[in-house]
Amino acid sequence: MRTFVHGSSVWGVASPPRPSRVPGVTMAGFRVPDLDALRMVPHPAVTVLLEFGASPPVLSHAAGRQELGSIVAGPGFGSGGAVWARGENVECVQVRLSPVIARAVLGVPPAEFDGAVVPLENLWGREAPRVRERLGEATSWQERFALADALIARRFAAGPPVDPEVAWAWKRIVASRGLVRVDGLAGDVGWSRKRLWSRFRAQLGLPPKRAATLIRFDLAAHRLVAGEGAARVAADTGYADQAHLHRDVVAFTGVTPANVAGERFLAVDHLAWPRGGPA
Asked: Per residue in 77-113, pLDDT tens?
């Protein structure tokens, strides 16, 4: 386990020794003595938080709603900077699922979350507390990663896949770093635009244009965290200009590009996800 230090924050961070057996899955382990007001920054993956520590983390929404314990969140969760995580003695395995495999693993498509957080128990029933217990009993992070990976592989093998056309469109958007002309995707798969938009939204949880915008933002945000200037980032990631980047960053995070560069949620990624995110 490595140490992540960011200001007064000191976290333990662990990564699996090898990739998941299921393409589109990445995971990391966290041990955080004091999780103090962590802004949740939107990400293109579906997030599954498997907590097993002495005290579960709490997600607080601007509207006053709270969730705690193991949860699932769809792509783009936290848009507007309205969700914060807090807790003490937090221990968890965070799993990121590509939206194209999330329905098989979770049992329901991400669209059913409708932008909200869902308690894992609502999806996995009695299996959710058993997973928590087994993770807590494990004696090492590698054992926890192996347990989580075996569970995901089993559920993925038994679950329904998304339409091949939808999976292809998602992968095309990812490969282009969000810069593909999404209006042309339907013709490429031989579908009408209405059919692709409807199936994509229903199976992955967001429409193609929103997916492209989110993927482009994620790339730009990580380059800002790496210390690159906003003007350079805007030019290199396909924004019309720096003002366009500014608007997107504020819309997704609630803060300016200068401030998002210091977000711990993003700054830890080079340790937690050294192989990058799911595609």
From this structure: 989 888 999 999 999 999 999 999 999 999 999 998 8
